[in-house]
Amino acid sequence: MKNTDKHQGLRNQLVKLLKEKGIRDATVLSAINTIPRHLFIDSSFENFAYQDKAFPIDAEQTISQPYTVAFQTQLLEVKKGQKILEIGTGSGYQTAVLCLLGATVYSVERQVKLFKKTQNLLPKLGIRPKHLSFGDGYKGLPEHAPFDGIIVTAGAPNIPHALMAQLKIGGRLVIPLGEETQIMTLLIRKNEKQFEKHEFGDFKFVPLLENKN
Ligand code: SAH
Is 64 an annotated catalytic residue? Predict the structure, then answer.
């Protein structure tokens, strides 16, 4: 579990690239500059860890591209101490970014192998989400709701109603919507019934799966 000057140099370059691609949030860039992404992926990919690319992790899933992580996190506008729900823990990299921003993080993963691996990894890196859960994120985490923000890190064919219901008034839900490719979508809860919808560019995610094992 080495984190060397060479890795730091590569992270500096990655952050420079993310700035060039339009990421502006200094707190997000600082988190990416700090987190050892090479420790979240298989060591055979270590040399590529700081390229702006998605990579395979276990259970045929992927660690999201750093630009995507930065873009989604920037849209979430996380403030210290906010309660954030992540759907799709995967490698735990996005979870780590949220923790570094000072959020109280809840995260759900439906692949048991990834759930266990990430639950084991994060404490070793000194990263402590409030709650990691194994289950179907389509349902959210009603027992811990409401949340200031919800981030979905898999492509969803539609917006799960449970997630909308678990968002605080004023809260933000960031979700990639679509089947083949996804449109990054931000919903802001205006009141009990109304949500304001904003759409951003196209992205590509592994699918958010409902009721399947
Ligand atoms: N945030 C992760 C992204 C992993 S890819 C990272 O940075 O590594 C998306 C993840 O969503 C996968 O791990 C997949 O297993 C998970 N997923 C898909 N459908 C899900 C569901 N219904 N509930 C919870 N997790 C789900």
Answer: yes
